[in-house]
TrEMBL record:
The protein's Enzyme Commission number: 3.4.16.-
Protein name listed in UniProt: Carboxypeptidase
Family under the similarity heading: Belongs to the peptidase S10 family.
Function: Probable carboxypeptidase.
Keywords in alphabetical order: Carboxypeptidase, Disulfide bond, Glycoprotein, Hydrolase, Protease, Secreted, Signal
Subcellular compartments: Secreted
Species per Swiss-Prot/TrEMBL record: Pyrus ussuriensis x Pyrus communis
Amino acid sequence: MCPSGTWKAMSMAAAIFLQLCYSMEAVESSSHHHPDHKIISLPGQPPVGFQHFSGYITVDDHNHKSLFYYFAEAEITPASKPLVLWLNGGPGCSSLGVGAFSENGPFRPDGEVLVRNEYSWNREANMLYVETPVGVGFSYSKSNSSYMAVDDEATATDNLVFLQRWFNKFPQYRHMDLFLAGESYAGHYIPQLAKLIVEINRKEKFNLKGIALGNPVLEFATDLNSQAEFLWSHGLISDSTYNMFTSVCNYSRYVSEYYRDSMSPVCSRVMSQVSKETSKFVDKYDVTLDVCISSVLSQSKVISPNQMTERIDVCVEDKTVNYLNRNDVQKALHARLVGVRRWDVCSNILDYQVLNLEIPTISLVGSLVKQGIPVLVYSGDQDSVIPLTGSRSLVYRLATELGLNTTVPYRVWFEGKQVGGWTQVYGNILSFATIRGASHEAPFSQPGRSLRLFKSFLEGRPLPEVF
């Protein structure tokens, strides 16, 4: 056993000894892991007692499509903890850069070094982050055609193959409880992957135990059009602009026209008024936050096409982008850049069928609930891009359609001695929760509350009623 003790008081020699000791223990505890994917240590990384892995899984042998993943085992007793696959949205943004290194992973880049995230989700689970679809982050294909006209269906298929082949590399995780989680456009990715898992489950045993969707796109018109009321109720737009934004040209119509290159003068006029009033000095993903946020939070470029050009970023340096573009970091991660010069948060080479955005996934969520798979939809309540009001009404409508009665009435929940948010549960299987004070990227902006929510979700328990 390795001695325990605080790192601060340690000499360099003692620290090195402990690190060696931990890595020896780690090696002993898991002899059937693939050494080629094991991370010895990331540059600037503090010593940790858990193992982590990264590398490529080929999902299409013919076109040599390879998806890059980062996997952090649970901090303690990984064998008794569930496996959680986490996906970020975009479509085309990185689960490594956004999820793992900015939100709920074990480390955050800070200049030359990594600092521990004390609210890392690998305290409760084995966390698997995948850069998907191919063309995102370090994921690549030998054939450029793999980046063209990529759609939800192809992405779901690749994600399923990824998971099947990843389990071949890490067989000891195959029979563990599996949860799928993600945010934003992952409101498309996750239910579609879950559907495929359920379909093949007669042949292969995936132990799918639940899905969690943060500020997700589930039903295009409802999600996007709830933006007007959110902006108006938070004082970001005037009464007259609110009226125009709901009657003359609503947001879903604007996005539809934008991606069909058929922008009507009337929509153009309404949107420029909305942009003018909301101001470029407010972060649409977190309306209460001062603007100084890295580009890591740009994973909803498809949902907010107009905001990408006007976003001012007074933080010139993006720590995650700088860190992941270092040669020594890429080497430690077993990562390589293929067909691109640098690692980017969101892909510049991926040509995604963005109008897949208009195909609702809420009915898929319903079919999963019918199959007995618990679903949690949660919302950072300061996000104006996919506001809580749209998500809440979609969950309520789904519960009504499925004939689910309220089992936990709408109430506050606690984390520490503070209100963590609000929640409502239907039929003990479909839940909605808000995370108070959180942005579109809830684990980034409210890490403690997000971890509390995550823990309750994994345990299948209602959120704490008292502190």
